[in-house]
Every structure is written in C-alpha cells, then in structure tokens.
Design goal:
The chain is mainly alpha-helical. The protein has 6 helices and 2 strands, in the order ααααββαα.
Length: 99
C-alpha cells in the first residue's frame, strides 16, 4: 500500500513538472509571474521550517527547536553571514539539549 502512495506521488510530481515546462512563453513573460516566481521557494521553505519547528504529530511543540529558530532569526536581523546563522542556531540547540 505504501508503494502505491510513493508511485502516485512520483507520477504527480512528474505531471506537475511537465505542466510547468509546457507553459507558453507569454505566460512566463507576464509581469505578475516574474514578480511572484522568485518568492515561491522562500514561502515553501518558511512553511517547511514552521511545520518542522512547531509541530509534532497533532501537538504544538515549543522547545529547543523554537529557541534555535529564534536565535537564527535574530542573527538574520543582525545581517550575519548564512553560515554563522546556521552555526549559531545549531550551537544553541546543542547547548540546550546538553542541559
């Protein structure tokens, strides 16, 4: 049963990618599309981070991950380099789990 779900997901991804490649050039040149497309990966990544940080099953979780995310956001607001943002969030999580 699980493999059926995997195959359906694979086929769906293929069809979605094929649909994107089949779009006419006029659609891709539209100003609204040009403004929106660069924002899609950011929105998807933010949704993934929020889902992985704040939920476990059906329960809301505020723990080490939340604190690490807050540290990462703070570092971004301070305009720290990306590697420093990731390292500081990872170090925060590691230290809090050590305690």
């Amino acid at each position: 049963m699980m493999w059926a779900g995997v195959l359906v997901a694979c086929a769906s991804c293929y069809v979605l990618k094929l649909a994107g490649l089949s779009l006419p050039a006029a659609v891709l040149q539209d100003a609204r599309v040009q403004r929106t497309v660069p924002l899609v990966p950011v929105a998807l990544l933010a949704a993934l981070v929020a889902t992985q940080t704040f939920s476990t099953g059906h329960h809301l979780v505020v723990d080490v991950r939340t604190t690490a995310l807050i540290v990462a956001v703070g570092m971004v607001l301070l305009r720290a380099p990306f590697l420093l943002v990731v390292a500081s969030a990872a170090a925060t999580a590691a230290l809090l789990r050590l305690i």
